[in-house]
Amino acid sequence: MSEPFRLTRDRAGYDPSKPTAPLLTVPSGARLIVETEDSRWGKVRSPEAATPEGLRRYAAERDAAGRGNAVTGPIDVEGAEPGDLLAVAIESVVPDALGYTGTWPFMQPDWLTDPITHFVRVRGDRVEWSDRVSFPVRPMIGELGCTPPVESGLGSKPGPWGGNMDCPDVRPGSTLLLPVARAGAGFYVGDCHAAQGDGEFCGGGIEVRAEVTLTLTVLKGRPAAMTWPRIETPDTLVVVAAARHLEDALNLAVRDLCLWMRDDHGIDPVEAFMLATQVADGHACQVLPGTEGPHVMRVRYPRAMLPRPGAPS
């Protein structure tokens, strides 16, 4: 196996709303290692920097610069054209030892007057929240996608081409299927978490620097009925969708799932709609109080409930 391509942490800083020349162009099927920066651009990595005054200063500087998450890209893939899919197979996400989460007063204004950050240590397979609480490491990638059309106005917001989805199924062992909007795809990745529950309620998972290993493969021809990112895990089919209102995001994901089941498994979409209601689950990905969104939902359908090959319909 050839050596993977590598992008180091200092290459982070891409804004998908302002496409630039690629940092790297790789052949389809290439393995890639990306050292990702944390969600605060590495600027707030100690309690001394994370005082209320320090956090407000950081937020003001971030907003003045128009910054989102510190993602790395664009990475172009040879042969990718609009109308294709980019398959992103995630091999590993290895978190740094230092993690943090935090929240801001607008999310719970009756509880908070100042922004707050909580630092943790990531040791082996555990997140050490405190002397009394620890929980398993569940590494995931919060933001990745193909660069959207500039006219979409999405930039890194969650949408049909990926973005800041904060979906816990974007993890090692999963393969994302992302629509391609421009020649080369303009793939980007960052905002890794050592763990995060469904919903990302307070606005942050366990934010970390990480080393991500993945493979990028061009699949020619997007299915005509596919609108939203799809994820294949070893035991589920997952569709992710975003909208201002959660019920709309959920319905968009359900509809795309039913059309996927029709095209790949021969199930009438109305039957799939009723079947999925019994065996699939809707999960929140990113739901931030006090914001207009878009908010993100996903639907997870178990592979065990797909029709058996060769069985009569």
Strands across the major sheet, in which order? 1-3-14-5-12-15-16-18-17
CATH fold naming of the largest domain: Jelly Rolls
Please report the total strand number as a whole number.
18
Named at the architecture level, the CATH assignment of the largest domain is Sandwich
Strand content: 25-35%
* Tally of helical runs: 3
- From the spread of the alpha carbons, the general shape counts as globular
User: What is the H/E order?
Assistant: EEEHEEEEEEEEEEEEEHHEE
The low-confidence runs, each spanning 5 or more residues with pLDDT under 50, are none
Structural class: alpha+beta
Termini distance?
42 Å
Mean pLDDT: 96
Over the alpha carbons, how many angstroms does the gyration radius reach?
Answer: 19 Å
Please give the largest β-sheet: 9 strands, mixed
- Helix fraction, binned, reads 10-25%
CATH superfamily of the largest domain: Acetamidase/Formamidase-like domains
Integer tally of domains: 2
Question: Quaternary arrangement of the chains shown?
Answer: single chain
Per CATH, the class of the largest domain reads Mainly Beta
Keyphrases for this structure?
single chain; 313 residues; alpha+beta; Jelly Rolls; Endonuclease I-creI; 2 domains; 9-stranded mixed sheet; 5-stranded mixed sheet; 3 helices; 18 strands; 34% strand
